[in-house]
Predict the structure.
Amino acid sequence: MKLLFLLLACIISTSANKCNGVLFDQRYYEPQILKDGLNRVRQLVFNRKDNDIYFLYNQGVLNYYGSVGYYNLNTKLAGFFKEIRNATSISIDEKRNRIYIGSIDGLYAVGERRIPEKFPLYEPIQHLFFNNILYFTNMRNKMFTFDTDGVRIVEDMKDYTADSFVVDGDGNMLFTNGKKLFKIKLGTRSPAFELVTRTVTALSKDIEDRLFAASLDGIFVYNKYKFALDKISNLHEIKALTFNNMLEPIYVVFDLLVKLKNPVNCVEDTFFV
Ligand SMILES: *[C@@H]1O[C@H](CO)[C@@H](O)[C@H](O)[C@H]1NC(C)=O
C-alpha cells in the first residue's frame, strides 16, 4: 500500500509539480543572499578555484569612478584594489586563474596573490573580455585584441562599435550598442545582425561556453543553432551575472549578491490538497 502510494505520488509529481523558487533555464532554484550592501555593481566574475567573487562597482558620486572589489565565499574576506584608478571592466582567464582589469590607465592582471600587475597596454580601456585571447575596446568603442604580439584591430568589428561584449569559444560574439544587442561570428567576415532592441543590463558566459544577456524583461541565452535568443528566466533588473562551477547563477540585484541554489523542494499541488 505504501509502495503504491509512493509510486502514485511519483507519477503525479512529474505531471503536476509545484515548485517554490526562481525558474532559471528549466530548473527551479532557491535564492540565497550571499552579501548585501554591494552598491552600484556593474560586472561580476567568479573565480571557482579560490571561491572568490570579483565585482566592478561605481565609487564616484557625480562622475563615474570604477573600483574592483572581491569577496571570498569561504572566508567572507572582502577588499578592493585601491591601486587601480577608474576601472571600467573585468574578465577572467580560467586556465591561468587570472583576472583582467581594464581601467583608464590601461590593463592590469590579478593572480592568486591578489596583487594587481600592470600589463604593457597603456591606453584607456572601455571594456574587455577574455576567451582564449583578450578582447578590448578603446574609448571610441573600437575593438582590438591584445597578446604577446601586441595590439591588433578585430577585423570583423571594423565597421562597428561596442559598449560591452562577450565571446564564446566558437567566435560567436554578442555586443551591445546603445539599446541594441547584436551578434557577429568572428573570423567569417560576415556582418553583424541585430538580435533585439531591449535594454541589456548584463552579458555573461558560463563554463559550458553559453552566452547570456540579462535585460529589463528577463534573461536570455544565445542559441547558436537558431541564431536567436531563448528566454530562460523572468529575473530582471539584474545588474551583473556570473555562474559557479555547478552552473548555479550568481547575480546582483539592488545591492544584493544572490546565488541560486539547486535543487529546491517541489510539492505536488493537486492530488493531496
Ligand atoms: C572614469 O572613466 C570614465 C570613462 O570610462 C570617465 O567618463 C570618467 O569621467 C572617469 N572618472 C574620473 C573621475 O576620471
